[in-house]
Amino acid sequence: MPSKFSDLPLSTSGPVECALTGSALLNDPYFNKGSAFTPEERAEFKLHGLLPPNVQTLDEQVKRAYQQYCSRKDDLAKNTFMTSMKEQNAVLYYRLIHDHLKEMFSIIYTPTEGDAIANYSRLFRRPEGCFLNVEDQDRIADDLNQFGEADEIDLIVVSDGEQILGIGDQGVGGILISVAKLVIYTLCAGIHPARTLPVVLDCGTNNEELLNDDLYLGLRRPRARGKEYDDFVDKFIRAARQKYPKAYIHFEDFGLHNARRILDKYTPQFACFNDDVQGTGCVTLAAIMAALKVADVKYEDLRIVLFGSGTAGTGIADQIKDAIAINTSRSKEEAGRQIWCIDKPGLLLKSKQKELTPAQVSYARDDSEWQGKPHHDLLSVVKEVKPHVLIGTSTRPGAFTKEVVQEMAAHVSRPIIFPLSNPTKLHEAKPSDLFEWTDGTCLVATGSPFAPVEHKGRQYDVSECNNSTTFPGIGLGAILSRARLVTPELLVAATNALAQQAPALDPKAKGSPQEVALLPDVTDVRDISVHIAKAVIRKAEAEGLAAQEGIPQDDGDLEEWIREQMWDPVYRPLKRVGLEQASSFARGEAGSASTKRPADYTESQKA
């Protein structure tokens, strides 16, 4: 039955207009169906002689592709195989991942994508995305012009490649984190892959290994800093906003000293987001929200110790502070005093303000509070604060010792402990140890997937704080509502929506709340994204930030409206149109994977 919203510009039902024929059609990743073209499509689009005669289903293609995938010798080879598939057939690529999500997530994203990025120049076959460099700043607008018209790009992910997935400065290879992030957006929230643009800002690199590699494809110079860097970022933002005024911009893996200040600069100007700062904070806050309900702790009473106060740590602190302020009558400054942050020098204190990053300053405590009290180590702070929640983003393995954990458990009935550092070998504690040391009373979430823990005949699920359950839905809601800004209120609404999906809060879930996960599983992420998008859209409307007209006011209609605009990895019928009336997408010119748009393409030529 057709949707009542099938006439929307972003509708994903019904036939797709296509002006390509023959080999040009087979070479377009968005239109190509390979062996699944129907007999009618083969005749209409001049494909006879270009394909084997047997017509197959998408399920049959997935079966064959999975067998090919499994034949690859290691994870990096599997990643490369998937990249090749994506360049040939977008539907098959996404459907294969969808059907094997648990298995393939670590291949297409962290940690294997980190290996692919580190080897970008050696594995390079063909470019995808937009490459901008600091030495050609006057060309930024022209370079962006090659990727579509003003209303053809909904989402831009941009990275400067300085702090990639825990492996540091990867220079121009940072384009792949932008590409990978957009894959997650499409997979988890149905953002149309042809309406996205991955960008890398090549500022040079301080990675000596890359600078000395004769195959390195990026600028061979030290990283730009200061005014040169800021001007480059600002020129990109201005050009992107002018060319694609409706696009939601996602900043990814910028360096420690740039990520937060760039986000703070542009957040009041347009809808933008930084997953390292905000996404990690939102998913962690959602797990905390669920845990607080299980542990029966009120926001007014909450005490949190954060061990590791870099980009991720302060981002988490910011989201918690906003939530406390919104859910109580307290100011943000007062809410922030319920959070104690520890970094390399120990507890953050105002006397050390010159050593702190801008993001850390607001969490520095008055020295007088700690006069005569030890505060240079985690155990001393835990003894004094008696926290309900202990969060680790320190990358210091084993930092949550038995003594620290049992000290915490001596003062609260349900210690909430989140060792979040990635990868697994850097976790502050193993979940099995936490349950053993607390006799099964702790509530745990981690930064990497862990198997359930057995303790005294009971099985405890271990939640994974996977950002992919969060940022895609936020982006989907912002894009569909055309939100002018992404405010703390929108993020807290999104976080609440995610927390409400926690199995631990589901009365129908098997097991006690302590045994069930604090966060939903990533395999349910598309439904989760719909719930988050609904919350974001409603809050954007309430705050006067939604620029999109015609948003349904009935909640059931709103869900149908959202789902109708989510791209699915299915083959839609093709409708042949002539070049003269074809859209850029129908001509095969849309999307960063397309190479058909002429470099000198202009609106006048289109007309």
From TrEMBL:
Tagged with keyword NAD: yes
Keywords: Metal-binding, NAD, Oxidoreductase
Biased composition (Basic and acidic residues): 597-607
Residue ranges constituting the Malic enzyme NAD-binding domain according to the UniProt record: 277-541
Annotated region (Disordered), positions in chain: 585-607
Pfam families, per database record: malic, Malic_M
PROSITE patterns on file: MALIC_ENZYMES (PS00331)
The protein's required cofactors: Mn(2+)
Limits of the Malic enzyme N-terminal domain: 86-267
NCBIfam families, sorted: PRK13529.1
Family: Belongs to the malic enzymes family.
Protein name: Malic enzyme
